[in-house]
Inverse folding.
């Protein structure tokens, strides 16, 4: 599928972080943002995507919740 050119607004600090990450991995800004968005939309992002991590987070939630009752 051909790429589309888009205009977006991004906070300066976030853009600086994106540029630093691009420099570290040797990617263009466009490729980095596209890859990040794709990964997030595909549901692979975040610690809860791993079943073991999700179970640990749920255990912590139960422990914290039990302490507040």
């Amino acid at each position: 599928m051909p790429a589309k050119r888009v205009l977006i607004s991004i906070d300066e600090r976030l853009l600086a972080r994106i540029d630093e990450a691009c420099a570290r991995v040797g990617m263009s800004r466009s490729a980095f943002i596209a890859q990040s968005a794709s990964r997030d939309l595909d549901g692979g992002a975040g610690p809860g995507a791993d079943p073991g991590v999700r179970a640990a987070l749920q255990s912590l939630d139960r422990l914290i919740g039990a302490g507040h009752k």
Notes: Helices lie at 12-25, 29-41, 51-67. The chain has one domain: 12-67. Residues 12-67 form one domain.
